[in-house]
From TrEMBL:
It is an enzyme of class 2 (transferase). This is HIT family protein. One of its GO terms (molecular function) is methyltransferase activity. A motif (Histidine triad motif) lies at residues 91-95. It comes from Dietzia aerolata. Coiled coil: none annotated. Keywords: Methyltransferase, Transferase.
Length: 142
């Protein structure tokens, strides 16, 4: 059975994509700990990150670093948080989010009631920052 992430990647469910390449996508989570909270996801359905092929794990981290740079510039955060938990969806994903303290690392504080307008604005902020950083070829229009 496909994971919810595979359905988002396939366009069966909506997603606010900020990155698409042949191996990896990045889209905003529906329950952010901060505006700009993004999930970096391989297109391949692999449950645990420890089971990823080394090259795919490296690519996920390259994209996470690019998104992290966009988070820093787009949201004026002191840090870009990075977290792999993997209990929410059985499909490897890296959480990248603006962080000014440790609260962002507590996913129980995520807000599933974030207004759509706020999420749309955060996605556009990240797309713009990624383009400004030179990653335009991977940034979808919306």
């Amino acid at each position: 059975m496909s994971t919810v992430f595979s359905k988002i990647i396939a366009g069966e469910l909506p997603g606010r994509f900020v990155w698409k390449d042949p191996e990896v996508v990045a889209f905003l989570t529906i329950a952010p700990v901060a505006p700009g909270h993004t999930l970096i996801v391989p297109r391949a359905e692999v449950d645990r990150w420890t089971d990823l092929e080394p090259d795919l794990l490296a690519r996920l981290n390259e994209v996470a670093q690019a998104v992290g740079k966009a988070v820093l510039s787009g949201f004026d955060a002191s840090r870009a948080g990075y977290l792999i938990a993997g209990f929410e969806v059985p499909h490897t994903h890296i959480h990248v989010f603006p962080a000014n303290d440790m609260s962002g690392f507590d996913l129980s504080l995520a807000n599933p009631d974030t207004p759509a307008e706020e999420s749309d604005a955060a996605a556009e902020t990240l797309r713009s920052a990624l383009r400004d950083l030179g990653y335009g070829e991977f940034v979808p229009e919306s």
